Amino acid sequence: MVNVSIKIREKEKSYPVIISRNDVSEIKEKIHKYTRGKKILVVISEKVNRLYGKKLGFQKDEIFVLKDGEEQKNFKNYKKILQKALKLQLTRNDTIIAIGGGVAGDITGFAASTYMRGIDYIQIPTTLLACVDSSVGGKTGIDTDFGKNLIGSFYQPKAVLIYTDFLKTLDDRQFKTGLGEVVKYTFIEKSCKCEEELNLTNFLNENTQNVLAGNPEILTQLIEICIKLKASVVEHDEKESGLRKILNFGHTYGHAVEKFTKYKKYTHGEAVVKGMEFAFNLAVKKNLIDVNYKYFADDVIKKFHFRKIPDYPLEKLITIMKMDKKAEFDKITFILPTDYSQVAEYKLSEDELK
Predict the structure, then answer these.
(1) Radius of gyration of the CA atoms of the chain, in A
(2) Which residues contact 103 (CB under 8 A, 6 or more apart)?
(3) First to last CA, the chain
(4) What is the b/e burial string over 27-53, where b = at least 16 CB atoms within 10 angstroms of the residue's CB?
């Protein structure tokens, strides 16, 4: 079966993203192509290990099983991963591999970036959210009691291997959380500075039912479009000093909702969708967009039947948003729509938000 290969070209490192519809049983063999040393440490999601562990065929002593859930992206597990690497006597010539969703990818990447001041790692995302977002771009990190990803690093993987076969066992809610990030790209596409005309909005409109049904061919194309858009952004701005901030569309408010509900009530994608709705309402109030564009955005979002989130007390969310790592001088950074598929950065005071 033909694989899709996308080259991510960043200043510090270039690496391939391979999208494959092949069986996951070939992953172990594929990994050897990208490993310099003999030893590996595989950090794998508990659910993925239960469903695919035998097929993947890794040795028991080279596996660290990470429990599922955002709360597992913590200091305790970060330390455990490093201790496992030390126990295996991994050197700088060896490799750490992340197999799972964004939680597994983020914490593994952070561990790899700090182990012996940097060791190769490979991302193998198993959720739609990780495929289209967290596995590409080199953001790694762990969460604290003060918020998500406040401790982390920019560290590029050796390779990203995407197998759409994993998506067959995603439950509907986890699939939808990935679609939340997919829909985000429709609203920022023209700001991504991608040389190729990808027309994600049209693609989603024409293939809504196939996407919701998990059609493998359509999902492969969808993931390819999203990665090309993200690749264009991170190639222009690897460490979020400018353009890359547009990828945070819907995230400032969305992260606050996640924190306010203790990461237990809503998925990341659901919170981002709520954040995008908040951003569109805010943009209308600030006369940045015509109200008809907001109605258009509402229709796009409605097609995918995301879980509804109520309006939580704005003052409490503002307190949380002030702790966002992108906040500056008592101003909260928002990415807001300015035109069809275009966004821009705005720094707003508490009074402006109220």
Answers:
(1) 20
(2) 45, 66, 68, 69, 70, 72, 73
(3) 54
(4) bbebbeebbeeeebbbbbbbbbbebbb
Q: Pull the structure tokens for residue 74.
A: 């913590």
- Tens digits of residue pLDDT in 248-263: 999 999 999 999 998 8
Tell me which amino acid residue 322 is. K
Query: pLDDT tens for residues 304-319?
Result: 999 999 999 999 999 9
The whole-angstrom separation of Cα 208 and Cα 206 is 6
C-alpha to C-alpha distance for 136 and 122, rounded to whole angstroms: 11
Rounded Cα distance, 275 and 256, in Å: 9
pLDDT band at residue 11 using 50, 70 and 90 as cut-offs: low
User: Is pLDDT above 80 for 131?
Assistant: yes
What is the 8-class DSSP label of residue 331? B
Alpha-carbon 256 to chain mean position: 17
Identify residue 59 by its one-letter amino acid code.
Q
For residue 219, give the nearest of 270, 168, 184, 185 by alpha carbon.
168
Catalytic sites, residue numbers: 117, 139, 181, 230, 240, 244, 248, 251, 255, 268
pTM, to two decimals: 0.91
Q: Sign of dihedral through CA atoms 48, 169, 139, 146?
A: negative
Q: Which residues contact 234 (CB under 8 A, 6 or more apart)?
A: 8, 10, 136, 137, 138, 244
